[in-house]
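Good morning,

Attaching, inline, the backbone tokens for the sequence recovery test we're adding to the shared suite. The designed sequence is right after.
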């Protein structure tokens, strides 16, 4: 059997370009915490350059909260994490460290350092792979046990774990009826060509301080069922594009 050949990339600019691509393509990563066998799923959602990074002297990566949820507690006490992903027919891994939690809307998630080096090898199919195709949800409908009212909220952002829904003046009663940790059952999520029904947990109610939604609120709902509803078999990025793979 042919041995895997690994290439190590240490150029900071090239590493940053790889993660910029992960963010722009909303691509999946897997996270190993302190070399445990379990891998947690996430996505890269923002790359903060040095000038706005909380680290000051180096950029930082913001990833979505981990799935399954148990990883979100493990990572906060970790000494080291491993990021794994596939890009342009190459399997990549790099070591990073937990920095903190991001509570800046809309980049709620986990802040980690960028790896100082990346190891790459030609992708080989090790296991059945999935990708997570999120429909463009446009609205959510739900009711509360204590109310007969049906709430219909527009969606302002969407991630693997849940949704950010816009609370306008007509629904400001939600601000006193809901708090972080409350469960919402039987929410119906609508897109132009799909509809799914999930349960969720309220994670935040954030007032918008600028932009066209200034003065309104975003209701953040987390739902592991969203990711399972959107899981489909996948091929690695660039499966049929060998020309691109040379440019990693």
């Amino acid at each position: 059997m042919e041995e895997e050949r690994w290439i190590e990339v240490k150029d900071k600019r090239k590493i940053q370009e790889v993660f910029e691509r992960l963010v722009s393509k909303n691509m999946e990563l897997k996270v190993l915490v302190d070399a445990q066998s379990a891998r947690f799923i996430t996505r890269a959602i923002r790359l903060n350059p040095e000038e706005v990074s909380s680290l000051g002297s180096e950029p930082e990566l913001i990833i979505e909260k981990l799935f399954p949820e148990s990883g979100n507690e493990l990572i906060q006490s970790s000494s080291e994490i491993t990021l794994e992903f596939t890009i342009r027919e190459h399997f990549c891994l790099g070591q990073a460290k937990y920095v903190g939690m991001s509570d800046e809307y809309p980049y709620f998630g986990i802040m980690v350092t960028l790896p100082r080096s990346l190891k790459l090898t030609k992708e080989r199919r090790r296991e059945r792979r999935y990708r997570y195709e999120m429909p463009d949800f446009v609205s959510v409908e739900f009711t509360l046990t204590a109310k007969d009212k049906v709430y219909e909220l527009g969606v302002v952002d969407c991630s693997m774990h849940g949704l950010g829904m816009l609370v306008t003046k007509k629904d400001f009663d939600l601000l006193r009826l809901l708090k972080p940790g409350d469960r919402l059952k039987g929410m119906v999520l609508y897109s132009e060509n799909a509809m799914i029904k999930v349960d969720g947990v309220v994670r935040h109610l954030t007032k918008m301080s600028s932009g066209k939604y200034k003065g309104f609120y975003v209701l953040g709902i987390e739902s592991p069922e969203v990711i399972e509803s959107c899981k489909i078999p996948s091929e690695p990025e660039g499966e049929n594009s060998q020309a691109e793979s040379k440019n990693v």
